[in-house]
Specification:
By secondary structure, the chain is mainly alpha-helical. The chain is built from eight helices and no strands. The chain has helices at residues 14-20, 22-44, 76-112, 114-129, 132-143, 147-173, 177-184, 189-194.
Length: 195
Amino acid sequence: MTPSDAEFPAAPTAWRLFARGEAAVAGAVVLAVLLALALGGAVVAPFDPEKVGAGAAMAMPGNMHWMGTDELGRDVFSRILVGIKVSLLVGIGAAAVSTGLGVLVGGVAGFSGGLIDDALMRVTEVFQVVPRFFLAVLLVAFFGASIFNIIVAIAILSWPEVARIVRAEFLSLRSRQFVDAARVAGASAGTLIFV
């Protein structure tokens, strides 16, 4: 006797699971609005963000300047629209680099075990105990305050947490049957780590 489809409904898709979370949907909407403003902010900005004297200095928010003006008379709303792009670039870039580095270090450490694991985890612990703010300021002061250097400085200070989480997951997965089956089938270490 085979069970009917009504007894075992189809597994929910990733989109359905995502759509059930109100906070996740709200966050996605906010991110989409910010990305749209970052991509088109310079086009829709009512004033040139660098123009001094676009209005009276320190003007209150009003019809002409929605968020007022700064001490040089520049339109604050226009400057925010242009500044969103830099903020998102730094945030997304630093998150991508730190995640990639953390996955690489944590994956190799968790998969290899032994001396390689010990060495990589000691390096990770060194980065975790160093005061982050002062090291970030030191890196930016030493190498310069470009966007690329800021992304690298934040990423270098953020990867240890990702590495420890990935290492713990690799330690639990490396002894599972599907990994043993792939190893017996001839999968290389690189394939086992990244696939």
